[in-house]
Amino acid sequence: MSFSVGDKVIYPNHGLGVVEKVEEKTILGTTCGFFHLRILSNDTTVLVPVANVDNVGLRRAIDDDEVERLFSKLGDGKIDNHANWKGRFKDNSDKMRSGSIADMADVLKSLTFLAKSKSLSFREKRMLDRAKSLIVSEVSEVMRVTPGDIENRVEQALEQCFSTKAKNAQRAEARAAKTVPPVPVPAPVAAAAPAPVAAVAVKAVPVAKAAAKAAPVKAAPAKAAPAKAAPAAVKVAAAKASAAKTRQARAS
User: Fold this and answer.
1) How far is CA 195 from CA 113, 192, 198, 200, in A?
2) For residue 18, what are the contacts with CB-CB under 8 A and spacing of at least 6?
3) Helices (H), 7-84
4) How many distinct structural domains can be found in the chain?
5) Together in a domain, 139 and 161
6) Same domain for 100 and 44
7) Tens digits of per-residue pLDDT, 209-228?
8) What share of the chain is helix, strand, coil (3-state, %, to 5)?
9) Where are any strands of DSSP class E within the chain?
10) Which member of 63, 84, 113, 204 has the greatest number of CB atoms within 10 A?
C-alpha cells in the first residue's frame, strides 16, 4: 500500500497520524524508504519503513461510510468473550495489533461488557482505554467533530449493544422453553392401609392334664441270654449216664 505526503493514516496502537514526508535513508549499508508520520494524539514522529507497511498494519483512515458501519457494529449486540483470561487477553492483543478499527470495536465491546460484571486487570483496563481512545480520535478527525461528542455517541452505541444482547438472550430462553415439553409430574399414590390381622385364639392346656393325656412309655423287657453249661460239667454228666447204662446191661 502506497501513501503520499498529507495522507491521514492509522498506525496500530499509536492512532491517527499524518504522512509528513517520504525519504530514503541508508542504514548499515542498506538504503530503504521511510514514511515520516506525525502522530496527532501526542505530536510525536514515527519512521515506518516503506517495505514494512503491510507487516505493521499501517492503513488509511476510515471514510464517512465506514464510520456508520462502525457504529452499527458497536450497537449490534454481538459480544465475544472468553472465560479464560489468557485466551481473552491474547485474542484482544492480536486484534489491537491488527490496526483494524472493526477489531478494536470488538475489543471495546467485550472489555466494556466484562467490566460491568467484574473488575478488570490493570493490563486489560489499559487495553480498554486504549481501544476507546483510538476509535474516538480517528472518528472525530474523520467527521470533524469534537472527541467529547464522539465519545458520547460511542457510549450510546455500547448501551444499545448490551440492551440488544440481553433481549436476544431472553428470546433464546423463551424459544428453548417452548421446544422442551413439560415433564409430567406423577400424582402421589396413597399408601394402602394394612389388612387387619385376624386374632387366633390359643387355648391354654393345663400342664397336669397334658401330662396325663400323654401315653406312658413301656420299657421292653430285656431277654435273658441262654446260659451255657460249662464244658467240664457236661462231660461228668455224660460219664455218669454211660456208667448207669453199663450197670443195667450187666444186671440183665
Assistant:
1) 67, 9, 9, 15
2) 6, 7, 8, 9, 37, 38, 40
3) 53-56, 64-74
4) 2
5) yes
6) no
7) 544 454 454 544 545 444 45
8) 50, 15, 35
9) 8-11, 15-27, 30-39, 44-49, 59-60
10) 113
